[in-house]
Write a structure and sequence with these properties.
CATH architecture of the largest domain: Sandwich
Helix content: 40-55%
Strand content: 15-25%
Largest sheet: 6 strands, antiparallel
Distance between the termini: 32 Å
CATH superfamily of the largest domain: Jelly Rolls
CATH topology of the largest domain: Jelly Rolls
Number of helices: 12
Shape: globular
Strand order of the largest sheet: 2-9-4-7-10-11
Oligomer: single chain
Length: 326
């Protein structure tokens, strides 16, 4: 399922957007946006989807996400029941980040955290507890107090030791970001031949290197050993194929390049923490949240003065003038 684009409308007299919403809500769907986001769950339990990561969440779940990272939180709430405030959200754009870098040398200390956020960063209970009162005050703060609270939140996140990355390195990998044409060629070849036998010796020959030199080179650029990277890419392909209800798990196993079902199940469980069949059921749950959000919008649930706008992939982004101050 392709994620929808959320257009984040930041007021002209503010640097970032802070808001909250309940459940169900029209933005509770598989979606992305170019802005960074700090997301804190204050009510409900359910399933969290960030990139290729799926796990359970409870109140206190705190995640920092980077630009264009697809995400969704699906709550375990009986049909017909509504939650007034499920989560708190802060969203800020790259232009704001660039302005801070240019204006404040101290901001560079935040850059490592923001780089990590491109995979999604989950924080522990201690950091979540420290952030929550600032978040709640920020909802109604005005003027310079907003900046003080926002910077205080970033400082806590930056210094937090109870944090972990969510999406896998392979999910984050973007061939255009690698330093050389050689690694682009190798990664492109891997991506086009996942269903075939891929040997490190063959790829080393393609790159014009010895196996040992290629092994070091590949790991330096991708952060993973060759075999682990290929397996992660195959699991990513399998995750995409699992959204197709027409294919059996066995068919997907071989289309993704695994030579037997037991090995596929073992590798999938090791990477995703669940069996392929369970992953498919959760993705169906994620997909169903789109219908629930549309039904909620039709009933007028969650309508506010500063709505988040969701577009299907491929639709043009309206001009900035289309968004009046809220």
């Amino acid at each position: 399922m392709q994620p929808d684009l959320e257009l984040v409308a930041v007021r002209r007299d503010e640097s970032f957007k802070v808001w909250s919403h309940g459940y169900p809500y029209r933005t509770v769907r598989w979606h992305f946006h170019p802005e960074y986001e700090i997301h804190l769950i204050v009510a409900t339990t359910g399933k969290m989807f960030v990139g290729d990561h799926i796990s359970s969440y409870t109140p206190g779940n705190l995640v920092l996400m980077g630009p264009n990272l697809p995400h969704n939180w699906v709550s375990d709430v009986p049909e017909g029941e509504t939650i007034a405030q499920r989560n708190l959200v802060v969203q800020f754009g790259q232009e704001f980040v660039s302005s801070c870098v240019d204006s404040f040398p101290e901001w560079r200390q935040v850059e490592a955290l923001l780089a990590d956020s491109r995979r999604g960063v989950l924080f522990g209970a201690a950091t979540s507890a420290a952030i929550k009162p600032l978040f709640l005050e920020l909802l109604n703060a005005r003027g310079l107090r907003r900046l003080v609270l926002f910077m205080s939140m970033l400082e806590i996140l930056m210094n937090a030791e109870d944090r972990e990355a969510l999406a896998s390195p392979a999910y984050q990998a973007d061939p255009t970001s690698f330093a050389s044409t050689r690694i682009n060629h190798v990664l492109s070849y891997i991506g086009k031949n996942l269903a075939n036998d891929l040997r490190e010796s063959d790829l080393a020959q393609l790159a014009g290197q010895s196996v040992s030199a290629f092994s070091r080179y590949f790991r330096r650029h991708t952060g993973l050993p060759f075999v682990q990277y290929v397996n992660r890419m195959r699991i990513n392909l399998a995750c995409q194929l699992l959204t197709d209800g027409e294919l059996s798990v066995t068919d997907i196993c071989f289309k993704a390049g695994f030579n037997n079902l037991s090995n596929f199940n073992r590798q999938f469980l090791a990477v995703k923490g669940m069996a392929p069949s369970k992953f498919r059921r959760y993705q169906q749950l994620n997909d169903a949240s789109r219908d629930a959000s549309e039904q909620a919008a039709a009933r007028g649930v969650g309508i506010d003065d500063a709505p988040a706008i969701v577009l299907a992939p491929g639709l043009p982004r309206p001009a900035a003038a289309a968004y009046p101050p809220t």
